[in-house]
Design a protein that fits this description.
Layout lengths: L1 H8 L5 H7 L3 H15 L4 H5 L2 H7 L7 H9 L5 H13 L13 E5 L8 E5 L1 H16 L14 E4 L7 E3 L2 E4 L1 H6 L10 E2 L2 H4 L4 H11 L5 E6 L1 H14 L14 E5 L4 H8 L7 E8 L2 E5 L8 E3 L5 E7 L28 E8 L3 E14 L4 E7 L13 H15 L5 E9 L2 E9 L6 H15 L1 H7 L3 E9 L1 H10 L12 E2 L1 H14 L5
């Protein structure tokens, strides 16, 4: 990282970053889609969807024809549809299904839905793209006020096991485990916890091993999902009887996080620190490295427009999605030159892993079209709209953050269930904190904050949304629930909204473990 530090101090940027700065988003994305289609034109998917006709549309000297042709030839896919029709063939060992050659790796991903694992193809081209975007984010550190010595320190990445499981014709595991198993040689000196610990599949054993080795490391950057990283830092602090983590790692300066909003965790996390650090958000999904925070003190992320992904945007509204977050037939889809700032869109991805017009399930909002800066506002199926309250995960995160500040409590996890209330409706909150707090006062604070944040919520609280219930639980209950479902460590997140079977399982679990009868 010393050489990298020299590059950073000189303000070196990769060619791709320079191209994105000085090229229009639509030109970058048009080129990206053309390259993807050319690369896949000899696959079974390309033949089925007549990619030659799509390529002809790129000859026209406009920015509309190619996208019209692409939409005409290729339908929208969710996971079930593309897996049923195409990806299962690649898992069976067939070559040239959706991407040239055979797929060697599949990332296991359930998002935050708690559903059975999805198998997302990971190609060599996708791994290269993830590395390149990672380097683009690292080089963005030149904009930060960091001392020279920082660039020789270690990077601790707390992710999935690199000991991937062989399953027939392919290997499977967390995306973080797949990418960490293939880190370039020059980076291995700085990468922690190192190859041996990274192979450990048991989460508790890995925690113990990292804790014992922590005294030997000089860490400058930590990377991971906030909840699991917080557990690790607490364990290290307790083991070495520290007041805060900076007593052991004085050069710790940056926390790179993603997967969930960091705001609800921030107050509790900062209790573990001895000095301020920078927080960098990333948008790295199993389907690709979508965006990263390019500037200090911004909460937005720059969409990566020229590194293996073509994006489409579906307005997240009642015209295109039903009350359960399901996509309606014939939705409106937009190219990047058709979107507007401060409007919510569900993402469709076409990638260099053989993904086409794939509904990833995330909802984003552009805060700057000029710089292609976005924020994640939630999930298509992780919002509550029982009666038109349109409560987003973004609203929930903000309300919990403001409540934790108001009551000076550390909220480690939370989830919400929508349920009937007679002939009308109610929301039931479950808040995970070990701090003492009055449930009624906390309920009132969250309710009032949501009324201020969301006009629709305020209207429905006076009409069909008749009540709000709230239960304070130990964070251990959330962790044990995740363990019960095999979702511990790595990239796993507790769902912010529980529905249907999962909601009933959660209620039964609480009745059995803490005697909470709902």
């Amino acid at each position: 990282m010393a050489i990298l530090g020299t590059l950073l101090k000189k303000g070196i940027m990769l060619r791709e970053s320079i191209a994105q700065l000085y090229t229009s988003p639509i030109d970058l994305q048009k080129q990206q889609l053309r390259d993807l289609i050319i690369h896949t034109q000899n696959t079974a998917f390309a033949r089925e969807h007549n990619f030659n006709e799509v390529l002809k549309a790129f000859r026209k000297n406009d920015n509309k024809s190619f996208y019209v042709a692409y939409k005409k030839q290729v339908p929208i896919f969710d996971y079930d549809k593309i897996n049923r029709e195409w990806w299962h063939l690649a898992r069976a060992g067939m070559a040239n299904v959706c991407w040239p050659g055979k797929i060697k790796y599949f990332a296991l991903s359930s998002g935050t839905s708690g559903a059975p694992s999805k198998y997302i193809p990971i190609t060599k081209d996708m791994v290269k793209s993830i590395r390149k975007t990672s380097m683009r984010q690292i080089l963005s550190l030149s904009k930060y006020d960091l001392p020279d010595k920082f660039f020789s320190k270690g990077i601790l990445a707390v992710g999935g096991s690199t000991d991937l499981r062989r399953s027939g014709h392919y290997f499977e595991g967390d995306l973080s485990g797949i990418t960490a198993s293939q880190i370039p040689f020059w980076f291995q000196h700085f990468y922690k916890p190192g190859k041996k610990i990274s192979k450990t599949s048991d989460w508790h054993e890995k925690l113990e091993e990292m804790t014992l080795k922590a005294k030997d490391w000089d860490i400058g950057i930590i990377v991971g999902v906030p909840a699991w990283l917080q557990i690790l830092l607490e364990k290290i602090i307790a083991h070495y009887k520290l007041n805060h983590i900076h007593e052991l790692w004085p050069n710790l300066s940056i926390f790179v996080h993603g997967g969930v909003s960091f705001e609800p965790y921030k107050k509790g996390f900062e209790k573990l620190l001895g000095q301020p650090i920078y927080y960098l958000e990333t948008y790295l999904a199993s389907e690709g490295f979508i965006a990263f925070q390019a500037y200090p003190n911004r909460k937005s992320m720059r969409l990566v427009l020229n590194n293996g992904i073509f994006y489409e945007f579906i307005p997240f509204d009642a015209q295109n999605f039903d009350e359960e977050g399901q996509l309606k037939p014939n939705p409106l889809t937009l190219n990047i030159d058709e979107v507007e700032e401060n409007k919510e869109y569900a993402l469709l991805l076409t990638t260099n892993a053989g993904t086409f017009r794939y509904l990833i399930g995330d909802v984003i909002k552009f805060v700057s079209l000029e710089e292609s800066e976005i924020v994640i506002t939630g999930r298509t199926k992780h919002f509550l709209s029982l009666c038109g309250e349109h409560l987003s995960v973004d609203n929930m995160n903000k309300a919990v953050e403001m409540a934790s500040e108001a009551f000076n409590i550390d909220v480690r996890e939370f989830t919400v269930i929508g349920e009937p209330h007679g002939s009308l409706f109610a929301h039931r909150w479950f808040i995970g904190t070990d701090d003492q707090v009055d449930e009624s006062a906390l309920r009132e604070k969250i309710d009032q904050t949501l009324k201020q944040l969301n006009d629709d919520y305020g209207v429905e609280r006076a009409n069909a949304l008749k009540d709000i219930y709230l239960h304070v639980l130990s964070p251990a209950q959330f962790l044990q629930w995740m363990e019960k479902h095999g979702k511990v460590g790595g990239q796993n997140k507790f769902p912010r909204v529980l529905r249907g079977e999962r909601a009933e399982e959660w209620k039964s679990y609480l009745a059995e473990t803490v005697g909470l009868i709902i």
